[in-house]
Design goal:
alpha+beta, 4 helices, about 20% strand
Length: about 450
């Protein structure tokens, strides 16, 4: 922990004391190398503002922040987590300035000034520049990967529509040929009839009034066989295209699912948010309903009416994906929820209230969109996948086993932290299980 002490030139220890589990050494230096100053500056840097600590406070998980930085970070949420390790706290921690650590930081600032404020500022500026340059490279790499994905999408799109056009063009050619053949048959039949009529006319003109004539009033030449052909061909083509499109949809859904499964995150349920009637497994991967409520603290994060639970980890950018084994359970509610959603009293799970969720109610499925969308599924999903595109404002649900897209919420405007949301509903004791994601073949 104190290896940086060895790098100090002409340093002697002034004080040694213990603050909690952390041993602090206050040093006073006659001279310090620039490399030592850089190491020390990193040790005394707040991870939020990236500056040397001002009025440092320590969380129970052992991390330090400027008092103003961590206070501002927690002012915008009702879920209190450490910005570094994401450990959750039951209620907002009451933090006090770590005076001993503050004295160490102040001592460092004095040495920093003695070592040259200009050099320190330059180092800090260079470090900030480098972080931004690293981010630029990261974004460029993401763009290159996106280009590859989009190029494949364009190729698939062209191939799909070419595959649709080909049978249509083939059907068109066959239909035109068949209509033309029908027209030729009509013309031949007309020629035969005309010839017979002309022969009878000639006989009559020759004085033969005993011509054995057919009843010409019942003879006709149909002029609309092509209409019947077109109708039949279109109906048959429609069925073929429908089968082809269904087959193509399965292929595209499989590719889509495989791609978004790359965004899989490790979701663990947060017991501090769980309704008292819910029991979580030791590893935080399963939740089930029990009859007797547990005697648990009524903290601000806990649901006290809806039998719901949130994930420990929250997300405020990019994409993330997780899967839940629902089995044959007839009622469940799964999706994501904003960190600011109401947890107390009667709540209505819908988009306007900060929930983006898919609800199964027996044979009916309800996307709790605005307005609600109700539908049925011939194949009941045993495992449901949830994918969030934060910046894109989309949340999609998938039947993982059947590799089928169920529903997508679009046009969402996320500003809050999003957490996985699971509600086993007030029926049955079958557990809902967060499962490892195995990418589709």
């Amino acid at each position: 922990m104190l290896s940086w002490i060895e790098q100090v030139s002409f340093v002697w220890k002034e004080t040694v004391f213990q603050e909690g589990s952390c041993v602090v050494v206050v040093v006073k230096s006659a001279a310090m190398s620039s490399s030592t100053l850089r190491v020390l500056e990193e040790q005394f840097q707040c991870s939020i503002c990236l500056e040397v600590f001002t009025d440092p406070v320590s969380t129970s998980c052992g991390h330090n922040f400027c008092q103003a930085c961590i206070s501002g970070y927690w002012d915008s949420t009702v879920i209190f987590v450490c910005p570094l390790c994401k450990e959750r706290f039951s209620g907002r921690p009451k933090l006090h300035v770590n005076t001993a650590f503050r004295d160490v930081v102040d001592q460092f600032k004095k040495m920093n000034v003695a070592g040259g404020t200009e050099n320190t500022t330059e180092r800090r500026t260079q470090r900030q520049i480098q972080k931004r340059l690293d981010m630029v490279q990261k974004i460029k790499r993401s763009v290159e990967l996106s280009k590859k994905d989009y190029s494949k999408d364009i190729e698939d799109c062209i191939n799909f529509y070419d595959s649709l056009v080909q049978p249509i063009q083939s059907s068109q050619a066959m239909l035109v040929e068949e209509i033309e053949e029908k027209q030729k048959e009509v013309e031949k039949r007309a020629e035969v009839l005309i010839k017979e009529l002309e022969q009878e006319v000639a006989a009559l003109q020759g004085g033969n009034t005993q011509v054995a004539s057919k009843n010409w009033s019942e003879v006709s030449v149909h002029s609309d066989p092509g209409v019947l052909l077109v109708r039949g061909t279109v109906a048959g083509l429609g069925k073929k295209l429908e089968l082809y499109i269904d087959k193509s949809k399965k292929i595209f859904y499989r590719r889509e699912l495989k791609r978004i499964q790359k965004y899989a995150v490790d979701v663990t349920l947060n017991p501090d948010t769980a309704h008292p009637s819910l029991v979580l497994s030791a590893d935080g991967k399963q939740v089930r309903l029990v009859e007797k409520q547990a005697d648990v603290p009524d903290n601000p994060e806990r649901f006290d009416s809806g039998v719901a639970v949130l994930g420990k980890e929250g997300f405020s950018s990019g994409g993330f994906y997780y899967e839940v084994q629902v089995g044959d359970k007839l009622r469940w509610d799964i999706g994501v929820a904003c960190g600011s959603v109401d947890r107390k009293g009667q709540i209505e799970v819908k988009l306007q209230n900060g929930y983006v969720a898919l609800f199964r109610n027996g044979e009916e499925y309800i996307a709790q969109d605005s307005p609600f969308v109700r539908f049925s599924l011939s194949n009941k999903p045993q495992k449901v996948g949830v994918f969030v595109d934060y910046e894109g404002g989309k949340v999609s649900f998938y039947d993982v086993g059947n590799e089928y897209h169920i529903y997508t919420f679009s046009g969402c405007k996320f500003k809050d932290i999003l957490y996985p949301y699971i509600n086993p509903c007030k029926t049955g004791s079958v557990a809902l299980v967060i499962t490892p994601v195995n990418p589709s073949d």
